[in-house]
Specification:
With 164 residues, the chain is of the alpha/beta class. The protein is built from 4 helices and 8 strands; from the N terminus they run E-H-E-H-E-H-E-H-E-E-E-E.
Length: 164
């Protein structure tokens, strides 16, 4: 059974306010496809950093690629700024095991050596398998390990969270 979670717009507002004191004008936001890219776009609108938002598709960097194969909708990564010596705010929708974030950091380093990487997530659902924790989090919750938290975007761009 699906259970609704708090309003995403409110969570994004809270997350932006937690990030704002640590954000410099030249901090670069990079969202992980797909949900993390949506969250990064929304945070970019709220925080207004100078650099454009970047996106990563970590499909080829996953450590389970050989077991599960390629996702059917691979999207190109787009980093419209120089990563070398750049402060990066890596953004994802849901932090679970930490493997997606690890893959994203591996891909970022292919673009150059950032000065720093901080992690912002809309939801930290627990179940971490790697020593990866968010610097900024909109909502921390514990759910049954067999369940998932999903971020969806409708045709009008409205984001909703659901536990399935």
């Amino acid at each position: 059974m699906n259970a609704p979670l708090p309003d995403v717009a409110g969570l994004l507002d809270q997350l932006a306010e937690r990030i704002r004191p640590a954000l410099t004008p030249d901090t670069a936001l990079v969202g992980i496809h797909t949900g993390g890219a949506w969250v990064a776009e929304e945070l970019h609108r709220r925080l207004k950093p100078m650099l454009p938002v970047g996106t990563l598709d970590i499909s080829f960097y996953r450590d389970d690629f050989s077991r599960i194969g390629l996702h059917p909708e691979v999207k190109p990564s787009a980093i419209p700024f120089v990563v070398e010596d750049q402060a990066i705010l890596l953004v994802d929708d849901v932090l679970h095991t930490g493997r997606t974030v690890r893959a994203a950091m591996n891909e970022l380093f292919d673009y150059g050596r950032p000065a720093s990487i901080k992690l912002a997530v809309l939801v930290d659902r627990g179940g971490h398998e790697l020593p990866i924790r968010p610097d900024f989090c909109g909502l921390a919750l514990e759910i049954d390990p067999r369940q998932n938290v999903q971020l969806r975007r409708n045709e009008q761009g409205l984001l909703t969270l659901t536990v399935v």
